[in-house]
Amino acid sequence: MKNFTSFVKELYETREFVPLHSPVFVGNEKAYLNEAIDSTFVSSVGPFVDLFEEKSANFLGVTKSVAVINGTSALQLALRISGVQANDEVLTQSLSFVATANAINYLGAVPVFIDVDLDTMSLSPEHLRNFLNEYAEIRQGGCYNKKTGNKIAACVPMHTFGMMCRIEEILDLCNEWTIPIVEDAAEAFGSQSNNKYAGSFGLINAFSFNGNKIITAGGGGLVCSNIASLANQAKHLSTTAKVKHSWEFFHDSLGYNFRMPNVNACIALAQLESFSSIVESKKEIFIKYQKFFDSSSIKLINPIDSNLWNHWLFSVCLDNREERDEFLKYTNENSVMTRPIWNLLFKLPMYENCFRDDQKNSLYLEERIVNIPSSARL
Ligand SMILES: *Cc1c(COP(=O)(O)O)cnc(C)c1O
Question: What pTM, to 2 d.p., does this model score?
Answer without folding.
Answer: 0.97
